[in-house]
Amino acid sequence: MTDNQLLKEKHVEYIINLDKKKEDFEYWVTEHLRMNGMYWGLSALSILNSIDKMNKEETIEWVLSCQQPNGGFSGNNQHDDHLLSTLSAVQILLQFDALDRLNIDAVVDYVVSLQQPDGSFFGDRWGEVDTRFTYCAVSILSLLNKLDKINQDKVVEFIGKCRNFDGGYGCLPGAESHAGQTFTCIGTLAILHRLHEIDIDTIGWWLCERQLPNGGLNGRPEKSSDVCYSWWVLSSLSAIDRLHWIDQDKLRSYIIDCQDQETGGIADKPQDLPDVFHTFFGLCGLSLMGYYNLEHIDPVYALPTKTLRKLKHLNLTWN
Ligand code: GRG
Ligand code: ZN
């Protein structure tokens, strides 16, 4: 147990040192996910108002070097393109104010080519379908002001098929409700300004029932709490204006207890080892709840609100 202190400086240290841990096993097993990792780390620094601690030019060059001939981005050099890494690449460039250096038309063609007749999206050329990929596609096109290039009604129709009786959403039609997938579906509907078409109170209840007696949130019934649901659940509640349906002070204490007092960083559960994914999403949760004077993160785009406000074409109705 700790007092309620957020170890801001230690978390900044933890993140900027991640790229120096090249002797670690974990560094190499996550090598193909470097683009996602870079987005989590950079965005965590943004929330902590320390984005200047990152080597801007070197990072931009590396991101641009991962754009493939088909327009999509890979997770690292010598890997294959995917919608997941393409969204992270756009999110990184946007935070560095470097979208003008991106071959936007190629990205848009890539995303558009992955939409299927039923409105769903493949994640890449290999044809896996998942509501995560729908969210990535819609977020990318919205950030680039190119949503008119896809069939948005079909997207909404497909998302509707992934909704379950409990109000939550799965990765495919008929799949179990999961908070992560619920974020992707609520986020997609929010971006397309179609949230008013769903039953907000039913999904609100399912989401707030994710809080456990220890204050943490789980991702579906009977599962244990995990800090990353402080994003997947809380962002969804925030987008539907139901953040006050959970006990925020108890969640704050849970996240604080997951900090590593020595190395900095936040873990999935108290006493576990920290990682950049849970560090970012733990900070996101605290930011959404308005604690510690953190930079505000947008619950739908998972980017700092101040960054999004520079994009005049966006209409952030949920903030
Ligand atoms: C820009 C924030 C952002 C996201 C991009 C990748 C993506 C779009 C969304 C991922 C949504 C998702 C499915 C999140 C859940 C991740 C997670 C913790 C999965 C663990 O699932 P299980 O079944 O864990 O291993 P539980 O907690 O259910 O035991
Ligand atoms: Zn987790």
TrEMBL record:
Enzyme category, top tier: transferase
Domain Prenyltransferase alpha-alpha toroid: 6-302
Cofactor note as given: Binds 1 zinc ion per subunit.
Cofactor: Zn(2+)
Assigned GO CC terms: Rab-protein geranylgeranyltransferase complex
Signal sequence residues: none
Keywords assigned: Metal-binding, Prenyltransferase, Repeat, Transferase, Zinc
Coiled-coil residue spans: none
Similarity section: Belongs to the protein prenyltransferase subunit beta family.
Name of the protein: Geranylgeranyl transferase type-2 subunit beta
The protein's role, per its UniProt record: Catalyzes the transfer of a geranylgeranyl moiety from geranylgeranyl diphosphate to both cysteines of proteins with the C-terminal sequence -XXCC, -XCXC and -CCXX.
Keyword Repeat included in the entry's annotation: yes
Catalytic activity: geranylgeranyl diphosphate + L-cysteinyl-[protein] = S-geranylgeranyl-L-cysteinyl-[protein] + diphosphate
GO molecular function ontology, one term from the record: Rab geranylgeranyltransferase activity
Keyword Hydrolase: no
Its EC number(s): 2.5.1.60
InterPro entries: PGGT1B-like, Prenyltrans, Ptb1, Terpenoid_cyclase/PrenylTrfase
